[in-house]
Design brief:
The complex is a heterodimer of chains A (244) and B (315). In chain A, helix 3 runs parallel beside helix 5 (149-161). Chain A has helices at 50-57, 83-87, 105-115, 120-133, 149-161, 179-194, 206-211; strands at residues 2-12, 22-34, 39-43, 65-70, 73-74, 90-93, 167-171, 198-202, 216-220, 223-226. Chain A is 30% helix and 25% strand. Chain A has a domain at 37-62 and 83-214: P-loop containing nucleotide triphosphate hydrolases (Rossmann fold, 3-Layer(aba) Sandwich), CATH 3.40.50.300. Chain B folds into two domains: 14-52 and 168-311, no CATH class; 65-158, no CATH class. Chain B has a four-stranded antiparallel beta sheet with strand order 2-5-1-6. Chain B has a two-stranded antiparallel ribbon with strand order 3-4. The radius of gyration of chain B is 32 Å and the shape is elongated. Classes of the chains: A alpha/beta (244), B alpha+beta (315).
């Protein structure tokens, strides 16, 4: 499903142009494996490399060394044109939502389906249903700026899961949510995980982690310090009722 | 795959990033210049063709002392030259101008003074020695007249064969030069239009960088993103060029009417719209719609190229 083998990452200093001098290495010798249907917390202090690890996972950057295999594709050597289809199988909830400000909530959520060329009838049905499910059925036409932080986050979450991704990544997804909404979000993640989606959630929210016990990847100073052992598959949640 | 995206779906926000004001206006100005250059090209070609078919296929022969005996002493010099001309292949007709025709021809320059005024009207005769003039029509331009001129000179020494071909050849060279200039102007205009569209596209890329990165991150391919930009640029360039061509049309019609007499078409006495529209060469009617089509093609290709090149910086 996904495999890191001694992966290192350093950013180039000026906008990724060829020949630009490379910056210091941000991630060092990351090695771990996750089977399909696994759930992992991604824990570590600020600046430890959580976001960089997620960026590798959602293919915003490629490793500078080592080997990374995602959804069966070696992305270190794959041609550039092989990456968009992979990205469509990965859902991401960003810390800053990254919604398109000029599009309505509906169109933001519909975007992954439209990029994938799904028929408009299916788009309308799926997006309408999901937005109803996250409690935004009365805000279909609202622009992100007209929505509260929590509502924007729900739009971002809906956009991440609308295409039923094989890998779901979330970076501090509960930052703008109250406890009730955070619980509801965890239920959604667990539901996605239960139907086979691999889920990785980076968070600082220790209470949330405490309520939903699951294996974790610990990262500090750009190195994996724990949780890099053999990756489990579906059925990560202890006791069937998710350790609540 | 058939895309069923709603028609107005503007995921990259290009309606504002590539605005419908500046770019179409600049392309319209380019199209206007291109229309003038095309008119120059087509007009020059038409005039050159007309001159070559008209004057290029004609010849003027001046025979001094026309009524004296020829070198062979069997007929007058004029008759000898006429006989030579009519017996030569490539000559369609040879017509010696009558005194009356000559008088009409010379009157504007020499006035009535050249006339010996006879006692009655209709008996006017030329009062000064004027060579006889033979207007010759050739079956086509480009005939080799050298042997004919030699034989005429043998029969009637001093006879002047004035070959218009020299002038026509010079005019043809001039026309070709003008056409080359018009072609160069067209190329330049196309180049500037491409540059304008490239600059606008790059500006659009910079203002929509975040949206592009989001769409790219959601699995949008280079073709998808470049296609969105290209569709917008194609539309704006086509609209602009159509506007430019429309603005150029009245000017071209006026020029065409002014040029009509030179191309051997009589200017119409009535000024109906139909006459005005009819005065434009058919080639130009075909060329004008090519302006929006050409601009659209330039817009599409330029935007595709610029966006795909820019997208290569993303993984």
């Amino acid at each position: 499903m996904l495999r890191f083998e001694a992966v290192g990452l350093r950013y180039e200093r000026s906008g990724g142009r060829a020949g630009a001098p490379a910056g210091p290495e941000i991630l060092h010798d990351i090695s771990f494996r996750l089977e399909a249907g696994a759930f992992r917390w991604l824990l570590g202090p600020s600046g430890a490399g959580k976001t960089s690890l997620l960026r590798l996972l959602y293919l915003a950057v490629r490793p500078t060394r080592g080997r990374l295999t995602l959804l069966g594709t070696d992305v270190t050597t794959a041609p550039r044109r092989a990456l968009p289809p992979l990205r469509r199988r990965i859902g991401v909830v960003f810390q800053d939502f990254r919604l398109l400000p000029h599009l309505s909530a509906f169109d933001n959520v519909a975007l992954p389906l439209r990029i994938a060329g799904r028929p408009e009838g299916q788009v309308r049905a799926d997006v309408g249903e999901l937005l109803r499910w996250v409690g935004l059925s009365r805000h279909l036409e609202a622009r992100p700026a007209e929505l509260s932080g929590g509502e924007q986050q729900r739009v971002a979450i809906a956009r991440a899961v609308i295409a039923r991704p094989a890998l779901l990544l979330a970076d501090e997804p509960t930052g703008n949510l109250d406890d009730g909404q955070a619980e509801r979000l965890m239920q959604l993640f667990k539901e996605m995980n239960r139907i086979g989606t691999t889920v990785i959630v980076a968070t600082h929210n220790e209470r949330l982690v405490g309520r939903h016990l699951a294996p974790a990847l610990h990262i500090a100073n750009g190195r994996l310090t724990g949780g890099g052992g053999p990756g489990g598959g579906a059925g990560e949640w202890p006791g069937g009722e998710d350790g609540e | 795959m058939i895309s069923l995206r709603p028609a107005g779906f503007d995921d990259l926000g290009l309606r504002r990033a590539l605005s419908d004001r500046m770019l179409p206006l600049l392309v319209a100005a380019m199209a206007f210049l291109a229309a003038l250059a095309m008119a120059g090209w087509i007009g020059t070609a038409a005039l050159s063709r007309h001159w070559q078919q008209g004057a290029g296929a004609s010849l003027t022969v001046q025979v001094p002392q026309a009524s004296e005996l020829s070198a062979h002493r069997d007929q007058t010099r004029l008759a000898a030259v006429l006989a030579l001309l009519t017996g030569t292949p490539g000559v369609a007709s040879a017509h010696a101008l009558s005194d009356q025709e000559l008088t009409d021809l010379l009157k504007p320059w020499l006035g009535q003074g050249i006339l010996y005024d006879g006692t009655e009207r209709g008996t006017e005769r030329l009062a000064m020695p004027i060579p006889a003039v033979i207007a010759v029509r050739l079956t086509g331009p480009g005939a080799d007249l050298e042997p004919l001129a030699r034989r005429i000179a043998d029969a009637a020494p001093g006879t002047l064969v004035e070959d218009h071909g020299v002038w026509i050849r010079r005019l043809a060279v001039l026309a070709r030069s003008l056409q080359a200039c018009a072609g160069l102007a067209l190329l330049l205009v196309a180049g500037v239009a491409a540059a304008v569209i490239a600059v606008a596209t790059r500006a659009g890329l910079l203002t929509r960088r975040e949206a592009i990165e989001i769409v790219h991150g959601l699995g949008g391919t280079d073709a998808y993103i470049a296609g969105r930009f290209a569709a917008r640029a194609t539309w704006l360039a086509a609209i602009g060029a159509a506007g430019g061509a429309l603005v150029a049309l009245p000017i071209l019609l006026t020029l065409a009417r002014m040029a009509a007499p030179f191309a051997g078409e009589p200017g119409s006495a009535t000024d109906t719209l139909q006459d005005a529209l009819g005065s434009l060469p058919a080639a130009l009617w075909l060329a004008l719609p090519c302006l929006p089509a050409g601009a659209a093609a330039i817009g599409f290709a330029t935007a595709q190229g610029a966006v795909r090149r820019w997208l290569r910086r993303l993984p």
